[in-house]
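Worked example 3. Consider a protein that binds S-adenosylmethionine.
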Amino acid sequence: MPIRGLNRPEGVERQPEDFYATDPATIPPLLKVLGSDWEAGNKLIWECAVGAGHLSQILELYGHQVISTDLIYRGYGVGGVDFLQPTPYDDLPYDAIITNPPFKYALEFVEKSLRIAPVVCMFLRIGFIESERRDALFTNNPPRYIAVFRKRARTSKNAAFPKGESSAMCHAWFIWYRGYKGNPEILRI
Ligand SMILES: C[S@@+](CC[C@H](N)C(=O)[O-])C[C@H]1O[C@@H](n2cnc3c(N)ncnc32)[C@H](O)[C@@H]1O
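Given these inputs, the predicted complex is written out as structure tokens:
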């Protein structure tokens, strides 16, 4: 028996492999938090769940070198690369991993990313803070910042971002600096 308000509306399916494009407008405030050298470009970044390239393309516009891969080829970068398995891209000297991962594997994406890059930025629902399953992560490898959008960031299942339309969910950039111990700082961006 569906419970009103708790079930997905009829006809609205979760995307296979959790594909939702992220508004590229989420990148400038992230780079501002990371600092002026990140706004200046020239970092090596892995977008390891690139989708249709919405985040990669704007990072490239800033002058960053971006390795773009995804499990499924969606018109940008290299497809057929399962980030949760060993890949030929694992050993490059990345400055950061930046992505909006499939939410159901977000913990696994963060854990692997922290083994690979010194800075890890994940666009995630605020609900990522919840769940006992993530206790060890928040205890042993807490994020340095949780940067919440003052104006709700948009995601889109068909990669269109109609003007004025806002997301039903509240997202933030969760930003890890490998080795950071302490409480995450909440930022409003
Ligand atoms: C929420 S979408 C985000 C796409 C893109 N990062 C963006 O922000 O526009 C998540 C993406 O993760 C990809 N994905 C799912 N499982 C994956 C895996 N194990 N390895 C790599 N990519 C995966 C999906 O194919 C999908 O394109």
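Take a moment to read the result before moving on. Residues 17-22, 48-51, 54-55, 70-72, 74, 82-84, 99-102 surround S-adenosylmethionine (CB under 6 Å). Residues 19-188 form a domain with the Rossmann fold fold (CATH 3.40.50.150).
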